[in-house]
Structures are given as C-alpha cells and as structure tokens.
User: What shape does this take?
Amino acid sequence: MVAACAVFACAANAAAMNWGGESLNAANDPDKLGDSDYDGYARAGTLYTLVWLGSDYSGSTTATTYNKDTRLTDLGGTVKATYTLTADDAENGAWNAPTPYSDTADNINGYWQVIMYDPNTPDVFSSLVGQMSGATETQQGNFAEVIAAAGGIGASMGGTVTGGGDIPEPTSGLLLLVGGAMLALRRKR
Assistant: This one.
C-alpha cells in the first residue's frame, strides 16, 4: 500500500513534454534510393533521440559529429528518450512520440537536443538544440513547437557519423577449421 502511494505521488508530481515534428531528410535523394516518394523525407527506421543538455547549458548549438553507438553528438548530454519512425509516420511526413517525456519540471525546463539519424543516409545526421520553458507539474510542455519554430530537424543534413563498426563474419576457412575440429573430437570418442 505504501509503495502504491509512493508511485502515485511521484506520478502526480511529474511534468511532461511532447516532442515530435516533420520527418525531413534533405539528403534523401530518390535517384540514389530508387523511390521518389521519399525525396527530402526520412524513411521508416529513422531514429530520433531526445537529449537533455541541462537547465543552464551555454555551449554550442551546432553539432558536428554523431556517434551511432552512444546516440550522442559532440555536444554531449544525456539520452532521455528515443523514437523510431514508423512506416505510417514516413508516409505522413511527420511524427510525434506516442508517450510524452516525463520528469520533474526542473528536469524538463532547460536545453534539449533532438538528433535525427536515418540509416538510408548513413553518413550524415541532423540535430536541433532548443530551450524548453513553461512546463509545470500541471501543464505539459511542447518541445514540438520549438522544433517547428526552428524549421524542423532534417532540413539540413551534415556532419560526420562515427561508431557502429561492422562485425566481421567468420570466413569459410575458419568455419571449416572449427567443423573439422568438432568432427575430430566426435570421432575420438
């Protein structure tokens, strides 16, 4: 009973923030991908990452490097939520995270970065830094408005993408060697 009351009290004191926007990708060229429906738009599977930079962030607002492993740019911060673009979102050209991000108002009102990475254009990314203000325990913040006011994410793609190195597959020779060793062990018995 005490635990249920504690959970309810925490939920009652939580603020929330909506985030989302147009699913743009200026680097999506139909000549390369063979699908003119997505010219300039992100495709299904695009990853959006919501990053908390802090309530008193005063660094750069332009990211130059994105790391696929950490899902962060060179601006740092803490990943708070992610959203993967669905096929319906891609068809509609816009998305909204189905569940608003929730935390205390002190951890919502501040500086945020939204990062967009589309695996269809694996060498570039887009990001946007903006300030959220006005969220309270009773009033939801709307970072989607901040994104829209800035012209959206993905309208200009660039930077350098790092991380996510490919895992080499075993060669045929190695597989034959392992198989031969297993056969030798079995025949030994």
Observations:
- Confidence is low (pLDDT under 50) at residues 1-12.
- The chain has one domain: 13-184.
